[in-house]
Amino acid sequence: MDNTLDATENTPTPNPPTPLASVSVPETSTPDLASTSSGPEPEEAASPDPTASSATTAFAARTDLSTLSRHAEAIRQEMSKVIVGQQALAELLLTAILADGHVLLEGVPGVAKTLTAKLLARTLDVPFSRLQFTPDLMPSDVLGTSIFRPNKADFEFRPGPIFASIVLIDEINRAPAKTQSALFEVMEERQVTQDGTRYTVPDPFVVLATQNPIEQEGTYRLPEAQLDRFLFKLNVGYPTVEEEVSILQGHHAGFGGMPLESVRAVLTADTLRTLREQVRRQHVEPKLLEYIARLVGQTRAHKGLYLGASPRASLALLNGAKALAALRGRDFVTPEDVQYLAAPVLRHRIQLTPEREMEGSTADDIVKQILQQIEVPR
């Protein structure tokens, strides 16, 4: 497939919108995609026994995930041309893409947050735009504005950079509250309302945002309502010593890693929509639904929290677990999938009490306690 996007410049201008009628990543080990078991094998029908045939029929109805696995591996291979390590981060980003969710990347400067997001965008054959948030950024700079056309004696809406399938927002916490609020509608409803008219953004639509957790000068705390619209918050950590040695060796050799132009698009919008439909059909046991509800509900009763997670967190856990199971070659969700995603889904949706913060506790510590308190279904 031809390279269609340039993540740094020459961003393609999306078609005009259509008006509507009105890391640290969890410590759980990540199994290799190729070696992951795809679940129990179907039993051979040796006789016309009714019970045996019903079991065979159940297995035969399972979703074929070979296409999804093939595209996921292709994306990983393309990203690995430029970036060293970050396999767990790449898996969680792919999980969010398949689950149709937005991602907030948090980490100190220089750990390849922006680069990773740009690489992921280049592997998708969809419109891409990048926004550098600054304190003087206005909502119209993000959403677009209406321009008066004298020849028509009417106003024409000029869409802003938010009208793309993959939107990278760098340093999202540098924009003031009114600009942050402008993202509420489009992140949740995939539409922008301007002068009483609603305009849809492209499908798929994913926001990848980065922020620095330590720098406070010229930054604004993100509103809880906006944080809740992110499927995951991923903490991007430092590389290991071995990974950093590989980075140094590459630069010392003179090539400094492959250029971004070497990354090609391997997944189209139509294919992504098909894969998302497969993810939605993943099998989930009723007891796992109850497990998710209990985990999220416990955040509202925990003594160390004054703000628990909303039902949107339960939906995020469910959709994320479906996508993660599919990436790992299974057409059914396990409790381990839910546990692996608990911290990325909940860490930005809960608020600790001042006493717990003074004790040095973190949101991840509370999530780990809750996981230990809730009985795991088997």
Automatic annotation (TrEMBL):
Read off the CDD domains from this record. AAA
Question: Which residues does the UniProt record annotate as the domain AAA+ ATPase?
Answer: 99-240
Query: Which region ranges are annotated with the description Disordered?
Result: 1-55
* Signal peptide from the UniProt entry: none
The protein's matches in SUPFAM superfamilies, at most eight in alphabetical order, are given as:
P-loop containing nucleoside triphosphate hydrolases
Q: State the name under which the record lists this protein.
A: MoxR family ATPase
Give the organism, scientific name. Hymenobacter tibetensis
